[in-house]
Design brief:
The structure holds two protein chains of two kinds. Chain A is an alpha/beta fold. Chain A contains seven helices and 19 strands. In chain A, helix 1 (14-25) crosses helix 7 (321-346), helix 3 runs parallel beside helix 4 and helix 4 packs parallel to helix 5. The two termini of chain A are 29 Å apart. Chain B is of the alpha/beta class. Chain B folds into two domains: 14-145, Glutathione S-transferase Yfyf (Class Pi), Chain A, domain 2; 148-326, 3-Layer(aba) Sandwich (Rossmann fold). In chain B, the strands form two sheets. Chain B has a four-stranded parallel β-sheet with strand order 2-1-3-4, sandwiched between helices. In chain B, strands 6-5-7-8 form a four-stranded parallel β-sheet, with helices on both faces. The chains are: A alpha/beta, B alpha/beta.
C-alpha cells in the first residue's frame, strides 16, 4: 500500500498525537503511524499526572479529540522501520511492507521504560513485591495497592534513579521525571493505605518543574514521606518473607538496613526500541545518550541532521508531558515553515 | 522467589568452559589448609571424568595476597601471571583452570587490562622476556575450577552414591552458597550466573538434590577482605562481617555452607570457632556449628568418597552431623591416620564432635 501525504508522523504517543493534530488543524494531510494497536503511548498507563495530580485520562481525551480530524489517517499496528530520500520526498517503510511517501517527517518514537530486571541487585521479576513505578500506576488504576499475596503493604520503599545516572547500565543522564513521580506516588499510597510508612531513597531530589518543589514539601509535611539520601545497594528477602534492603544514609553517614513489604523501582527513560530500529535503518544521528541528536541544542531542537525530518518529544531526551506537547508544537512550526519554503521554491 | 526469572538472569551469564585439556594452577591457601580439595579435583577430572589435566611443578603463587595488600606492584603481578601463561604455553596447553578465586580475579583483571591497554601487555612481554627468557600466550579459555565442576555437575549426579538429601526425612538439605567476591563481583560476565544470582555453586547443589537458601546477607563478604584481616588492627571488622552473615543465615537452618573461594572457606569455618570461643554463640541447629565445605568436597561426598580422604577433618567445624544426615558411613578411628596407618596430629578443640 503506497500513500503520499504532506507529513508522516512516526509514533502515536503524546508528542506524535499533538504534532499530527496541530498539523491537521493547519490543513496539512498527515499519516500518524503507531506501532501499537492503540494510540496514546505511555500516557495510557499513567493514573494521575504531576504536579496537579489530574487524571491522565483527561489529557488522553484531549489528544484523542485532537487527532479526530479528516486530515489525519491513523495507522495503528504500523511500525516504521526505515526512512529514505531527502529534501522534498521521503519514503518510509513499515515492518508489514506498507510504504508511505511524505514531503516531511516528524519522528516521535518516544521512550521505553528502563527494563528494571537489568538492575539485578534489586530483584525485579524475582521477588514478587519488587515492582516498578509503572506497575504501581496500574495498581492505582485498578483501585488498590496490594502485595502479591493480596495483603496490604505497611512499609513501602521507593528507589530513585533505577537505570538513570548509572554508569553500570550505560545511562549517565537523568531521566528528570522519576523524582517527582516517586513523590507523587508516595503521596497517593498514603491516600490509599491508612497508616502506611513510605521511604524514598534518592541521590539528589531534582524538583526542576513548575510546582514540583511545592509537592515535595507537601509530601513531607502533610503525608510524612521519609526522604533518605542514599542509593539502595541490594534487595533481598528475609526469613519472614519481607523484603530487606541495604543502603547508606549519606546524610547521617551510616549504613542502613530496613525491612519493607514492597519496593517500587523508579524506572528511568531510554531510547525506545522503535527509535533504535529507525535509527538503524536511516541516517539519523544519535547522541551519546542514544536518543536522537538534534541539529542544535538551543536553536534547533526539533531539527534532525536530515533536512525535512524533524523530532518531537522524548525521542530526543527525557521530557514530561507538558514539555512533550510544547516540543511537538515547536516541531509543527518548523514543519510548516519548511513546507511553505519548499512550496515557494517548487513554484 | 520467581524461579523462571532467576533462571533467565542466569541464562544471560553463561560462559564458555573448556571441555578437556586443562592447565591447572593451584591455590596457596587450599594447598595449605585443606589440600584434599585440590587432590580430589585432580582425581575427579582425570580418573572419574576421564579428562586431561596437567600441572607444571614450576608454578608459583600468583602473589595475589601481596597485590591486594599493596606489597606487590601491578607490573610485578602481571609479570608473575605472564610467567604462568608461559609455563602453560611451554606445556602445550591453552585452557587454564584456576583453583583459587583470588587468583581467578587477578588473572581476569590482568587480561582485561591487557585488552584495554595493549601497551601494558607489550611491557609485560618485555619484562618477562628480560627476566626469564620466556614468552607467553593469553589462554584461549579461562575457567575457575568450580566452573569445570559446574560444567560436569550432571555427570557427577549420574554417578552419585549419595544425594544432598536428609536420609531420615527425605527432605533436600538446605545449603548456603557463597561464591566469593572476586569470582564475579568485579567482572560479572566471567562468572557462571553473574554476580547477583550466581549459578556456579547453586547449580551444583540443585543437580545433587539440595536446596539453596536465599538469605538477606547472601551477597555480603565472608569477612576475609584482605586488609580487614591481614592488617591485624582490622580483624574485628573482619569478624563482624562474618557475624552479620551468620546471623542472617541462622533462621534458615542451613545444613552446610558450600564455598567457592579458599579465603571464604577458611574464614567462615574458623570464625565460627572464634565466635563460639568469644561469645558462646553458634549458628547451626542444636547448638552446633555449620560445616563449611568446598565444592570439591561436596562433589566427593556425593560420589561416595571417604570423608577423611577428602580431608574434611581438617576444617575447624567437623562434618559428622552432615555425614549422618546424608547417610555417609565413616570410621571414627580412621579420622586422624595416614593412608599407611600412621597417626596424624589431631586438633585439640574440634567443633561439632
Amino acid at each position: 500500500m503506497n500513500s503520499m501525504v504532506d507529513v508522516l508522523v512516526i509514533g502515536g504517543g503524546v508528542a506524535g498525537m499533538e504534532a499530527a493534530g496541530q498539523l491537521a488543524r493547519s490543513g496539512y494531510s498527515v499519516i500518524l503511524a503507531e506501532k501499537e494497536p492503540l494510540t496514546g503511548g505511555h500516557l495510557k498507563n499513567w493514573y494521575h499526572l504531576f504536579p496537579d495530580r489530574r487524571d491522565g485520562n483527561e489529557v488522553g481525551e484531549y489528544l484523542d479529540n485532537l487527532v479526530k480530524n479528516k486530515n489525519i489517517e491513523i495507522r495503528n499496528n504500523t511500525c516504521i522501520t526505515g526512512i529514505t530520500g531527502r529534501k522534498g520526498k521521503f519514503t518510509a517503510t513499515a515492518s508489514d511492507g506498507q510504504v508511505v511517501e511524505a514531503e516531511a517527517v516528524i519522528v516521535a518514537t518516544g521512550f521505553d521504560l528502563f527494563d528494571s530486571r537489568r538492575k539485578e541487585e534489586y530483584g525485579y521479576g524475582i521477588y514478587p513485591n519488587v515492582i516498578t513505578s509503572a506497575d504501581l500506576e496500574k495498581m492505582f488504576r485498578n483501585g488498590s495497592v496490594k502485595l502479591a499475596d493480596g495483603g496490604v503493604p505497611a512499609r513501602i520503599g521507593f528507589i530513585h534513579c533505577v537505570g538513570s545516572r548509572d554508569e553500570k547500565v550505560g545511562n549517565l543522564y537523568c531521566s528528570k521525571l522519576c523524582c517527582i513521580t516517586a513523590v507523587k506516588q508516595a503521596m497517593e499510597v498514603h491516600e490509599k493505605i491508612s497508616g502506611v510508612k513510605t521511604f524514598c531513597f534518592y541521590m539528589d531530589m531534582r524538583m526542576g518543574g513548575a510546582y514540583y518543589e511545592e509537592i515535595y514539601r507537601e509530601a513531607q509535611e502533610k503525608y510524612g514521606v521519609s526522604f533518605i539520601r542514599g542509593k539502595v545497594s541490594e534487595v533481598s528477602q528475609g526469613y519472614n518473607g519481607r523484603l530487606v534492603i541495604k543502603a547508606e544514609d549519606t546524610l547521617a553517614g551510616r549504613p542502613l538496613r530496613m525491612e519493607l513489604d514492597m519496593v517500587v523501582l523508579m524506572a528511568g527513560m531510554e531510547m525506545s526500541d522503535a527509535g533504535e530500529i529507525l535509527a538503524g535503518k536511516s541516517s539519523l544521528r544519535r547522541g551519546e545518550n542514544r536518543f536522537f541528536s538534534t541539529a542544535d541544542n538551543h536553536t534547533a531542537s526539533n531539527r534532525s541532521n536530515l533536512k525535512g525530518v524533524f523530532y518531537a518529544g522524548t525521542c530526543t531526551a527525557p521530557m514530561n508531558i507538558t514539555e512533550s506537547i510544547s516540543h511537538a508544537r515547536a516541531a509543527v512550526t518548523e514543519v510548516v515553515s519548511y513546507l511553505r519554503e519548499k512550496k515557494q521554491r517548487d513554484e | 522467589m520467581n524461579e523462571p526469572d532467576k533462571k533467565r538472569i542466569w541464562s544471560e551469564y553463561q560462559k564458555e568452559i573448556a571441555d578437556d585439556h586443562y592447565f591447572y594452577v593451584r591455590s596457596c591457601i587450599r594447598q595449605s589448609f585443606f589440600p584434599g580439595s585440590e587432590q580430589f579435583f585432580l582425581h575427579l577430572i582425570r580418573d572419574i571424568l576421564g579428562k586431561d589435566i596437567y600441572e607444571n611443578p614450576s608454578h608459583t603463587t600468583c602473589t595475589g595476597i601481596g597485590y591486594h595488600t599493596d606489597i606487590v606492584p601491578f607490573q610485578t603481578i602481571m609479570t608473575v601471571v605472564a610467567r604462568h601463561f608461559a609455563l602453560m604455553k611451554e606445556s602445550g596447553y591453552k585452557n587454564i583452570a584456576i583453583s583459587c578465586v583470588t587468583s581467578f580475579g587477578i588473572y581476569t583483571e590482568i587480561i582485561e587490562t591487557w585488552k584495554h591497554f595493549p601497551e601494558e601487555l607489550e611491557k609485560t612481554r618485555e619484562y618477562l622476556l628480560k627476566a626469564t627468557g620466556r614468552e607467553f600466550d593469553i589462554p584461549e579459555n579461562m575457567a575457575h575450577t568450580s566452573d569445570i565442576v559446574y560444567k560436569f555437575r550432571n555427570e557427577i549426579a549420574s554417578k552419585a552414591k549419595f544425594r544432598l538429601v536428609n536420609k531420615k526425612t527425605g527432605e533436600p538439605l538446605k545449603v548456603v552458597e557463597h561464591i566469593g567476591c572476586h569470582y564475579s563481583k568485579m567482572f560479572p560476565k566471567y562468572g557462571v550466573g553473574g554476580a547477583e544470582f550466581p549459578k556456579v555453586l547453586s547449580g551444583m547443589i540443585e543437580a545433587w538434590g539440595g536446596e539453596v537458601i536465599d538469605y538477606p546477607e547472601r551477597r555480603h563478604c565472608c569477612g576475609f577482605g584482605f586488609r580487614q584481616y591481614i592488617v591485624q588492627a582490622n580483624r574485628g571488622y573482619s569478624l563482624s562481617n562474618s557475624v552479620k552473615k551468620f546471623e542472617s543465615m541462622k533462621p534458615f537452618k542451613p545444613d552446610f555452607i558450600i564455598t567457592n573461594c579458599p579465603g571464604c572457606n577458611m574464614f567462615m569455618d574458623k570464625w565460627q570457632y572464634t565466635i563460639r570461643e568469644m561469645e558462646g554463640r553458634t549458628y547451626g541447629e542444636n547448638g552446633l556449628s555449620i560445616p563449611v565445605l568446598t565444592y570439591e568436597e561436596v562433589a566427593g561426598l556425593v560420589l561416595g568418597m571417604n570423608p577423611w580422604e577428602l580431608g574434611l577433618q581438617y576444617h575447624m567445624v567437623q562434618p559428622e552431623p552432615l555425614l549422618d544426615k546424608m547417610g555417609v558411613e565413616y570410621s571414627k578411628s580412621d579420622k586422624f591416620i595416614t593412608k599407611d596407618g600412621k597417626p596424624l596430629p589431631a586438633p585439640e578443640k574440634l567443633i561439632n564432635v
